[in-house]
């Protein structure tokens, strides 16, 4: 493994981005809505108890609350949590929110029917991702579901930055400078969820054949990644 010189100049962090409305995703993913409908079909309990892990600026926390469930959210970015709280308040909605790193368990003792983590869990080293997944497992009821998206080694950004461990890269520039990104192959992914039952394991592969410079700034299409639902 090469020795990496990681220079992290002062670039915008997630926290800074969440203080600027231009960088805030206002629409939830339809997949999250369908995931909640799936949970409603499995569990007769109402409300369901749900955790939006790495909730960001709150688009899914708000959706889950609008769907009349008991919602918990957590994220490392204080501004994301602040934005989520304001969004909830402005719509007369409620959720319990905490600033927390994914490697700590902010809701120890709370038993969730479902947990989701959209486009965030890969922002770490492999060991720390394992730790986060273990907290999710501990907090789920038996039969509870975890929906998560993770980066694939087939993704276009694979290999960018400095490889600090196998398949984990840290970029030196951009708003994610200094943030690790772990890319999974199938074996690694199956290993991460070896204690779980796979409900859905899907690799969504997108090949961009023609693009303009900086197309990703306004790209309406998805990127290559793993889409996973696992059951405790
Ligand atoms: C691409 S955003 C996704 C946010 C949200 N899940 C969504 O779909 O809108 C990635 C999120 O991961 C959060 N994040 C990154 N590293 C984290 C960590 N170590 N612990 C908790 N949250 C983290 C960021 O603050 C950011 O909110």
TrEMBL record:
Entry's Gene Ontology BP terms: methylation
CDD domains assigned: AdoMet_MTases
Keywords tagged on the record: Methyltransferase, Transferase
Gene3D superfamilies in alphabetical order: Vaccinia Virus protein VP39
InterPro entries: Methyltransf_25, SAM-dependent_MTases_sf
MF (Gene Ontology): methyltransferase activity
Methyltransferase domain span: 52-144
Protein name (Swiss-Prot/TrEMBL): Class I SAM-dependent methyltransferase
Species of origin: Methanospirillum lacunae
